Amino acid sequence: MASSQILQVVQGGKAADLLRQLLPDEEVLAFEEDFSHGPLADADTIDPQLRMAWWNRIWWAHSWWPDIDQQFQLAWWQCRKRLFRALSEQQPLCVWLGNTVHDQLMLAMLAANAHPDQPLAVLDVAGQVASSHHGVYAVAMCSAAELQPLITRPRTLLASERVQLIAMWRHWQQHANGWRGQIDGQLHVYPADHFDARLLALSRQQGEQPAARLVGMLMGQSTVELVSDSYLFWRLATLAEAGLLLLKPQPDGPPLVSPL
What we know:
By secondary structure, the protein is an alpha/beta fold. The protein has 9 helices and 10 strands. Helix 4 crosses helix 6, helix 7 (196-206) crosses helix 8 and helix 8 (211-219) packs across helix 9.
């Protein structure tokens, strides 16, 4: 296949913008999802109502950003439409990924939904770039200079690897709930409140803090998995609803967090 026929797939807009700089003649698809949390039973269907209900629960907790759910849904549906077309047309895919839970499950989902004859290649940045978060690699963490040497190194997945990925996706479709983390490279499932105790402890230790600063402090801890700020903002809102901390609205962004 000619290079221009390959669809480059990577998680998120930041990573996609990096690849567009490096591959100006290629089509790059930003995969607008995060499979590290929430149900996956219908995550690869045309109308994933269970999956979208989970996302709405997260976005509706962002009261200072009232249209974030609409912005996300627009990008999310555009991604899905393009991806489903690529799958139906058996277009060759090159998946850029690190070693995050999401990236592993994103690749597993693509393998499970691609035709056996559809070319599927991977370009894994884990261990090949300097940028990482306590051993966790993601394309969005990298600089363009780090990614440049990798462009010519995609690897076609073996049939045996695709079989393993398909089994992995089917397993997590049935067992996914809450949060997913890794221990020694193996995926494990945890309750949705996996980070709540650490958020509460940090809040009590630091006293009243802007939510963004508190969330950033937790994300930077060496013992914490790679987690998005949006997930943690949702958990703060859930803790506030339970009466375990207080959120003080601010006119220009996320609230202040006060311990109780």
